[in-house]
Amino acid sequence: MNHLNTILPTALFVTDINGKNIRPLTHLNNVHDQAGSYSPDGKKIVFFSDRLNSAFSYDLFTMNADGSDIKRIATGVGACPDGNCVDATWGPKPGK
């Protein structure tokens, strides 16, 4: 995924496979929610956000796949003003 370093807010959305029925999981509230990745079972999403920090200073969050129950799980995972950022992804399942 590509981080969009813009002064404009960014949010996470989902859509049907055909590109229809777009719906927001997070909202454009002057924050940058970026780089969402589904968990292997599809029940959770991990993503970066500066929602609790200054712009482009990211923490790591999880939420349910429907956008509910957003939780910060790591702080200060970095800033990427040059667009050279690491994406949030899930590791392999234990025992794999």
Summarize the main sheet: 4 strands, antiparallel
Low-confidence stretches: none
Q: What amount of the residues lies in strands?
A: 25-35%
Spatial order of the strands forming the largest sheet: 3-4-5-6
Per DSSP E runs of 2 or more residues, the count of β-strands stands at 6
The residue fraction in helices comes out at: under 10%
- Gap between N and C termini, in Å? 24 Å
Structural class call reads mainly beta
Walk me through the topology.
Layout: E1 13-14, E2 23-24, E3 33-38, E4 44-49, E5 57-64, E6 71-79
Antiparallel strand pairs: 1-2, 3-4, 4-5, 5-6
What does this molecule look like?
It contains no helices and six strands. It is an all-beta fold. The chain has a domain at 13-77. It has a four-stranded antiparallel β-sheet, with no helix packed on it. It is globular, with a radius of gyration of 13 Å. The mean pLDDT is 79.
List descriptors.
96 residues; mainly beta; 4-stranded antiparallel beta sheet; 0% helix; globular
Task: Give a quick summary of the entry.
The protein has strands spanning 13-14, 23-24, 33-38, 44-49, 57-64, 71-79.
